[in-house]
Design goal:
Elements: H1 23-35, H2 50-57, H3 62-76, H4 80-83, H5 86-91, H6 96-112, H7 117-122, H8 124-133, H9 136-142, H10 156-174, H11 176-193, H12 198-227
Helix pairs in contact: 1-3, 6-11, 9-10, 10-11, 10-12, 11-12
Protein name: DUF19 domain-containing protein
Keywords: Signal
Organism: Caenorhabditis angaria
């Protein structure tokens, strides 16, 4: 595989579990999902250490991982809206670090296998090598990701600079498309942490895509000017 991106970012969270009405769906779907990677439920009611999933995922290609993740998403259904959260994962791991790993992993592949799939596939080799050297969450930390965050909208400017920085670093290494893809993945991790308001997250989405749109318009202009 593939994407070595996980590093625990210790963070304070708002309470979201109260909004989740079907937490057991997360457990049931994840047990089924983990069976694809060699884990079989032990009846304890807890998910296994994330390391076992991470190790197995590294042996699969992105298309295979996304095929499995799509099945997980389908199983979760509407539960993914409120039930994919730190609080719910903590319920089924009883460990802060493990809960964070599961949440970050889900947020990352939610974007990579969803809205960002085509972007990642366009430059998969370079992105893979780059994230193999420095993981995405390592990059976020290097770019100033605060270690302790609560539900404080005033943190928005600070976090916007983090995702901008992630975008720029990957752009330099692998090009604009890769920068946009990685920025989008970082934004989705921020989104799943659930401490920023909708306006801030929308601004992140816009900033991630603005440079790519500018590049596309520039290419279109050149084609129109010289060939039409």
């Amino acid at each position: 595989m593939i994407f070595y991106f996980l590093l625990l970012l210790p963070i304070g969270f708002i309470e979201t579990q109260s909004l989740c009405k079907t937490p057991n769906t997360v457990y049931t779907c994840y047990v089924s999902y983990l069976e694809r990677y060699g884990y079989h439920g032990d009846g304890s009611g807890y998910l296994p250490a994330f390391q076992s999933l991470d190790y197995q995922m590294r042996t699969h290609s992105l298309p295979v991982i996304c095929s499995d993740f799509d099945k997980l998403t389908s199983c979760l259904g509407s539960s993914s809206t409120y039930c994919i959260s730190y609080d719910v994962f903590y319920t089924f791991t009883r460990n802060q670090q493990e809960a964070m790993y599961y949440l970050q992993n889900h947020a990352f592949f939610e974007f990579v296998c969803g809205n960002g799939k085509e972007l990642f596939l366009q430059n998969q080799i370079c992105i893979q090598k780059s994230l193999g050297r420095i993981s995405l969450t390592d990059r976020m930390r290097e770019c100033g990701q605060p270690q302790f965050i609560t539900n404080m909208p005033e943190k928005c400017p600070e976090i916007l600079e983090v995702t901008n920085c992630v975008h720029e670093k990957m752009r330099v290494e692998c090009g604009e498309v890769a920068g946009t893809a990685t920025c989008g993945a970082a934004t989705n991790i921020e989104r799943r942490m659930q401490f920023l308001d909708a306006a801030c997250l929308t601004e992140m989405d816009v900033r991630c895509s603005t440079n790519l749109l500018s590049l596309m318009f520039s290419i279109l202009f050149v084609i129109t000017y010289y060939f039409i």
